[in-house]
Every structure is written in C-alpha cells, then in structure tokens.
Design brief:
This protein is 79% helix and 0% strand. Helix 1 packs antiparallel against helix 2.
Length: 77
Amino acid sequence: MINLGEQIAEAQRDLGLWKKCYPQWVKSGKLDAGDAKYQILVQEEIVRTLMRFDAEQRQLSLFGGREYIRSVGLRWS
C-alpha cells in the first residue's frame, strides 16, 4: 500500500510536470488548451483533497481517531 504522504508527493510532482509541459504541448497542437486547463484544475483539486484528508487524519490521531478510521473501512497509514 502506498501511504498518503507518498500519494501527495506524487500528485504534486505530476502537477508540477503538467504545468511545465502542458503549455508547450498546447502550443505544438498536441493538447487542447481547454483540456490542459481542466486537467490541471482537477489535479490541483486532487492535491488539495489529499492534503485535507492528511490534515484530518493527523488531527484524528491526536484524539484516538484510529478506531474511527477503521470503523469507516479506511486503513491507517
């Protein structure tokens, strides 16, 4: 299993790569500008969601939230 911190790092890495490459791909016609913008917005939201979940998980761990995480069927990383 890939832990949450690793998932966040990979999502951030992908986002950075896309922001670097997509403008060139749009300019060369390999990628539609609207698609590029949408994909970057979605990836930014994925990063925000993962980071929010990580913060919530850390807060729950301070108050014995491990049992709650397990009760909703998630794994504690």
